[in-house]
User: Which sequence fits this backbone?
């Protein structure tokens, strides 16, 4: 157990440049605390002390913000960065040297008993907010982009992004993978749609400003006080009597 603890602490320095000392990691990293608690609760679960295991894991969730079912299997040198909002289901399996960022869910898609949660092979990196659902396998060294929703297996050393997640071509990935966000290099369709809406909104604001400026130059008073004071009603149009020709 102490050997596993030393490995868990050492891997933090390899993957988090903010870590400055062993004491800081031991006292200030909830992901490490959650893993230590899980090592204990998993042993209890395996020995049939299921209620005690669940109770202790419930306490650990309140202290760390990380929910790990004691039945889940977690390998060596796993790093949960930040940790808040991470959920790992009962039949999930996480291989050695995996990295999970905050908000990650390894969830199920069925209420039936048996294997219903994902398997992460060695070296998988799961970006912030990603959801991996169902009894699927994420291959060795695969990378899951931020906020992706993965419902199908991902091959080894592949990168999956989007909702639902799709595997990117190697040329599209390059060195641009970011566990906190999916940038332009990843060609994320959701990000592109949101950016398009933002650009359109900005263009509309510019056009409205130009219209107001033109009205102001023509001497039109468009202040709200004047509109109310003169009885202007923007939601109604009053008909005018036709002017008779003389």
Assistant:
């Amino acid at each position: 157990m102490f050997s596993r603890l030393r490995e868990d602490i050492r891997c933090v320095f390899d993957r988090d440049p903010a870590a400055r000392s062993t004491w800081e990691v031991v006292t200030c990293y909830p992901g490490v605390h959650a893993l230590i608690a899980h090592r204990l609760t998993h042993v209890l679960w395996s020995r049939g002390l299921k209620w005690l295991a669940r109770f202790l894991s419930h306490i650990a969730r309140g202290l760390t913000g990380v929910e790990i079912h004691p039945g889940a299997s977690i390998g060596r040198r796993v790093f949960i960065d930040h940790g808040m909002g991470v959920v790992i289901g009962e039949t999930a399996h996480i291989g050695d040297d995996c990295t999970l960022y905050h908000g990650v869910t390894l969830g199920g898609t069925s209420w039936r008993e048996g294997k219903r949660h994902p398997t992460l092979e060695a070296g998988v990196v799961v970006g912030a907010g990603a959801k991996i659902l169902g009894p699927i396998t994420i291959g060795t060294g695969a990378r899951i982009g931020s906020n992706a929703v993965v419902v199908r297996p991902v091959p080894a050393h592949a990168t999956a992004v989007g909702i639902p997640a799709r595997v990117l071509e190697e040329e599209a990935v390059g060195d641009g993978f970011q566990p906190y966000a999916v940038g332009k290099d990843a060609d994320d369709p959701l990000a592109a749609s949101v950016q398009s809406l933002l650009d359109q909104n900005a263009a509309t604001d510019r056009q409205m400003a130009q219209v107001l400026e033109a009205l102001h130059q023509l001497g039109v008073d468009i202040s709200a006080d004047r509109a109310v004071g003169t009885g202007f009603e923007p939601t109604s149009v009053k008909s005018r009597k036709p002017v008779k020709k003389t």
Notes: The chain has a mean pLDDT of 82.
